[in-house]
Amino acid sequence: MTKNLFLTTLSLAAFGCSSVDGSALPPQTHSYIVGVDISGSRTPTELAESKQLLEALINELEVGDRLTLVEMYQGGKLPARQWSDSTRAPRAVGKPGPSELRRLEDFKAVARMQAQILFDTTRAKEIRNTDIFGTLVRAADYSRPSPNTRRTLLLLSDMINETPDVTMTTRSSIPTDAWIRHLSAGRRIPQLRDVCVVVAGADVSSARGAAIRDFWEKYFEAAGTHLNPENYRNMIANASEVGCGG
Amino acid sequence: MEKISPPIGRLDPVDGLGASRNGNGNGTSAPSHPTNRIYAYPAPSRLGELSTLWEKSRGFGRRVRGWLNWPRNANDDPAGTGVYAITRNTNYWFNRELAVIEQGAARLAGEWAEKGLPRHDVERDGPVEPEQVLGMKCLELYRQWRDRVTIKMQDAIQSASAAMGAQITALRATIYALESNNQQRRAAEHEIESAHMLGEADKSRVGYDRIFKSRAGFWIFAGILAAAELTANFPVFRLLLPMDSTLMQLASSLGEAAESNAWLAGPFVTFQDMLLHFEAFVVALVAVVILVLLGKTAGSSARSLVAFSTRESPLASTSIRSNRRQNLFVFFAALTGVAFVLTFLYSARGQIAQTAADRVHADSVALQQARAAQAAAGTDLTQTAATTQRTIDASRTLQLHSDDAAYAITVQRINKAILWLNLGLVFAAMTLGFVYKQEELSDKRGEHPILGLMRSRIRRLDADALKLRQTAQGAQNGAQTEAGRINHLVRSNPLRDWRGKQERLQSVIPLFRGENARLRRIDPASILSFRERYLIPLPELDENVEFRTPVEFEQLVNELESLTREYARVVGYSSAATQPMSAARSS
Questions:
Q1: What's the confidence (pLDDT) of residue A57?
Q2: Edge-to-edge strands, sheet with A66-71
Q3: A99 part of contact set with chain B, CB < 8 Å
Q4: Buried b (16+ CB within 10 A) or exposed e, B543-574
Q5: Is B271 helix (H, G, I), strand (E, B) or coil?
């Protein structure tokens, strides 16, 4: 009798635990907001590198990931082109089905097509202004907090804002901390809390580049996130490095 | 001098209508020979126009009587065929002939009276000349009457003998028929008795058991057959009946759910595929179920057809024949249904390649349109996304349908092989139905089939025997009646009235003398020639003379007695055999 009771209990325990596996955990998906800067300040090589990184990132997308492509704002009232889409959340984490993979491939194909359009070099020559602040505002809109979603903001830009208000073409023209505080006091800085910010294409070797990097570090601090210097790079060859490592 | 008697020239010859009245009595018309012509008074002429109407309508009356077939023969008179019937006609003839003589006497009396002859004051020795003539005529009439009566009686006797012979012949034939009837009846009774003995001895079972006894096994095999048929034929219907875009999206969504079932994904996806292609699935399922059902039914019916034999179980032959008729109909109906379904499947498979090719062509056009739309979208990200997705979908659909087209070509190429497979599965279903069929006709075993035939034959023989007995009885009675008539005619005395006839004839001479004297307005007694009575020398007749019996009469009587005994023997068996059958039928 005791033996039977033990076996029954063991069986029930085994049956109950059989559903406790990885598939029961909430799925972790990524949401990539990519800001594409094809302004004339960037060289064709830089644009090609950015395009390669974007395509590599697209290739790394998984089922349930969201990709948002935002063209860098040009200032004024001219709207920037944007595209945001995602695949359906996976039914089982780590075990995508054929139809999910098929949908993912379709999604990647569409994303590649969008990337190709965004990196149209003929259009790059026409763009004179780069409104990074406006782009960040729109990026903040796309990166609203979502459960079980890692949000990454990838900026494929030299991070040199060129608008009538702020022009970072020279070191002296880079805004000061007071300007950031002024904006923050006025709640004019977009909130990017818990958003991983990665920059690819920035100048990290010159003094102006360093000054610009310092500015953006403080700016993102004011935006509620942290720009890791490791993620402020001139070029990222491996798309898997796009992230904050956590 | 007034003539009260019509002249002899006014007598008209009697036509054929009155020929029977000439006394021949046989109903035939007398030949219209002048010597035999009978003269009679014409129709009355005192009624003037009515007489004219009578003359004109007489022919019409004859025709009407001919149509209505009125009796024109005196023998048809209810007086019958006895002595009276014979003598009545003869008497009628005699009276007519006598009337003619009397008229002649009146005419001669008138002619002589005109001349004042015979002279009243002259006594003559013997009768005058007219009296002699009239006497000879009367004598001749008297002899004719005697011969006529004698001949007619003898003719009647001979006719009765012939009728008796005919009745005896009919009686003999009827007795032979009754004898044959009895023999056939005995044979039928023997057959019935033999059949009863055979039925009591035959207790063998009429039925058969299942060769394949497992009910679960039957359903398993039936399910396998149906599943095999469905699996083999469903893709064909899926290719024939295209799925719309909504169902394709739904199929993709459901496919995701199915994929989570790991190793069950295959049958799960297949099952979902069937449900998504619902029209194709229903058609395929119905076709397969009908095919298996018809095959099984045909096999079951074939078992009934080959399992029972009327030779092996003659007592159950009625049930077996009924069972065989029904199963034969079911068998051929099932085979016809199988043929129709297989023909449908075969022809459907023969068309799927073309259908699939048409679908590929349509998909190619759709892909070209999607690519054109994609190119037209330019750098518009929103439109580009939609058109790119559409292009991808169109490409994938084209790919799927291209694969289907290749599959269809393959299927069409092996269409005959699939037909053989279908036939094999149908035969398998037939075999399954054959081995799973069980039937029992033992409790429906009836009597030997020959019993019904024999009973029917006996009933027919009994009915024939009844008619034959009636016929024989009638022939026997008829023969006996004719024999009695012959005896009666032979012993009758139709000439016993000869004295009356003589007296009538003797009255002719007084008639002549009285008429002559009346016309001369003198008393006949005052004429000396008429004083002496003149009697016509008519001979006396032997009224007790018997007529001759026919020479064959004795033989006929003996034969009739023999046949009567034979009939009593034959009819005894027939009556004894009929009564139990009647009692059995009534019970």
A1: 95
A2: A82-86, A66-71, A29-36, A149-156, A195-200, A232-233
A3: yes
A4: eeeebebbeebeebbebbeebbebbeebbebb
A5: helix
CB B307 within 8 A of CB B206: no
Q: Side chain identity at B44, as an amino acid letter?
A: P
A82 part of contact set with chain B, CB < 8 Å: yes
Residues 6 or more apart whose CB falls under 8 angstroms from that of B368 comprise: none
CB atoms A91 and B260 under 8 Å: yes
CA-wise closest residue to A42 among A139, A162, A133:
A162
Residues of chain B positioned with their CB less than 8 A from the CB of A123 = 379
**To the nearest whole angstrom, how far is the Cα of A171 from the nearest Cα of chain B?**
36
The answer to whether the Cβ–Cβ distance between B379 and A81 falls below 8 Å is yes
Low-confidence ranges of chain B (pLDDT < 70): 1-81, 199-203, 242-262, 443-447, 573-587
Nearest to A37 by CA among A69, A66, A77: A69
Provide the pLDDT for residue B83.
81
A120 reaches B (C-beta below 8 A): yes
**Does residue A91 belong to the interface with chain B, where contact is any CB pair within 8 Å?**
yes
pLDDT profile of chain A (246 residues), mean per 10: 50 43 60 90 88 94 92 71 87 76 89 90 72 91 86 94 87 91 93 93 91 94 92 92 80
Exposure string for B124-144, b = 16+ CB within 10 A, e = fewer: eeebbebbebbbebbeebbee
Alpha-carbon distance of B199 to B318, in angstroms, equals 14
Determine contact, residues A103/A66, Cβ cutoff 8 Å. no
Q: What local confidence, expressed as pLDDT, does residue B16 receive?
A: 35
DSSP B367: H
A97, B381: Cβ pair inside 8 Å? no
Q: Could you give the ipTM of this predicted complex?
A: 0.79
Shortest alpha-carbon distance between residue B396 and chain A (Å) = 10
